[in-house]
Specification:
CATH class of the domain at 2-184 and 209-240 and 304-319: Alpha Beta
Number of strands: 13
Strand content: 15-25%
Order of helices and strands: EHEEHEHEHEEHEEHEEHEHHEHHH
Shape: globular
CATH topology of the domain at 2-184 and 209-240 and 304-319: Rossmann fold
Largest sheet: 7 strands, parallel
Radius of gyration: 20 Å
Strand order of the largest sheet: 3-2-1-4-5-6-10
Structural class: alpha/beta
Distance between the termini: 22 Å
Number of helices: 12
CATH superfamily of the domain at 2-184 and 209-240 and 304-319: NAD(P)-binding Rossmann-like Domain
Length: about 350
């Protein structure tokens, strides 16, 4: 079975390509933007078809001969100088993928959403897919964080579920905060680990996240294709941990000290002011800010999620968090993203020649 994977060179997409090949049941076809970094998939012998999610013609050509589509491609950033890119790609691009898939007679679409399109947890109790059935209170509605990535994914998910109700065979998967191998940009989640390694996080707020190994997410996509029910949403989360717990693991693995933890309210207040200044500076320089105002607001919340539905219906499995963190550290070391002095120190602990797959 031939599977088109959009965003195939990205973090989740490239891991999905690896897992599809490993399964020996599928023939993946990679859909990549012209000029995109293909280092994660270039040695796999996978057919690469170039195009843009905003270009219907390139999508139709890429879909030729494919039975299913994994629509993974998206703009995953927490800041962009031109915010229209989020809506053009994440919403408009998704709509174009679905329409092209309909015209080409694709059997099934697996759409990659995000837990941020479901809701935000009020306390340490994780939320599940039922949060979609009723609007959350104002403070726990991700729309009100005023984060354009979250808003664009919420809108895109609505379009996807609308078409599923109209009869298209679509399964939605919502990864939480993936970490691990292949985060070459890196994504905002991977940047947290990289900045810890490079000693660039002086203070932090002890916010809670659902950290998941990107390999678990990739395998979960295949399970969604094989066992998912059309029109259903499946959370693919991992370990619900506070940042202090994750930094404890990283300190144990690397010998590096944790940054200074501030009380949540204080860090949120300081973070909001700093975020406003950094966003202004980002407008001038074009370089993404270390923190945004939306991230500062989110630091008062816990982003904890339950994957019980995916476990029960799909057989989704969550592997140890240590493995994901080690994979991320190895990747950043091997790709030269860690500062030289720290890299030499960590190279005595981690074997950079270790295989990822």
């Amino acid at each position: 079975m031939r599977c088109l994977v959009t965003g195939a060179n990205g973090f989740v997409g490239s891991n999905l390509i690896h897992e599809l090949i490993k399964s020996n049941k599928y023939e993946p076809v990679a859909f990549v933007r012209p000029g995109g970094d293909i280092s994660n998939i270039k040695d796999l012998g996978v057919e690469i078809r170039y195009g843009d999610l905003r270009d219907e013609d390139s999508l139709e050509k890429a879909l030729s001969g494919c039975n299913v589509v994994f629509h993974v491609g998206a703009v995953y950033l927490f800041w962009a100088k031109d915010t229209s890119i989020f809506y053009e790609v994440n919403v408009g691009g998704t709509t174009k993928v679905l329409e092209a898939a309909r015209r080409k007679g694709v059997e099934r679409v697996v759409y990659t959403s995000t837990t941020g399109a479901i809701g935000l947890s009020r306390d340490e109790n994780p939320i599940d897919e039922s949060a979609l059935e009723s609007p959350p209170p104002w403070f726990f509605n991700p729309w009100n964080l005023k984060d354009h990535y979250a808003r664009s994914k919420i809108l895109a998910q609505r379009e996807v579920l609308k078409r599923a109700k109209e009869g298209m065979d679509i399964v939605v998967v919502c990864p939480s905060a993936p970490i691990g191998w292949g985060d070459y940009k890196p994504t905002p989640t991977g940047l947290l680990i990289l900045k810890f390694l490079n000693r660039e996080i002086p203070i932090y707020s002890d916010v809670g996240f659902s950290f998941v190994n990107v390999k678990d997410v990739a395998r979960g996509h295949i399970l969604a294709l094989e066992k998912g029910k059309s029109g259903q949403v499946y959370i693919m989360g991992g370990h619900n941990k506070f940042l202090s717990e994750v930094f404890d693991i990283m300190s144990r693995l690397t010998g590096l000290k944790k940054p200074l933890k501030l009380p949540r309210f204080l860090s949120c207040y300081i973070g909001y002011i700093v975020g406003a200044i950094l966003e202004l500076w980002a407008w001038i320089t074009g370089r993404p800010p270390l923190i945004t105002r939306a991230q500062a607001r989110a630091s008062m919340l816990n982003l904890f999620y339950s994957s019980e539905k995916a476990k029960t219906e799909l057989g989704y499995e969550i592997t140890p968090l240590d493995n994901a963190i080690k994979d991320a550290i190895l990747f950043f070391l091997k790709s030269g993203k860690v500062k030289p002095g720290i890299s030499r120190r960590l190279s005595c602990i981690f074997d950079k020649s270790q295989l990822y797959f």
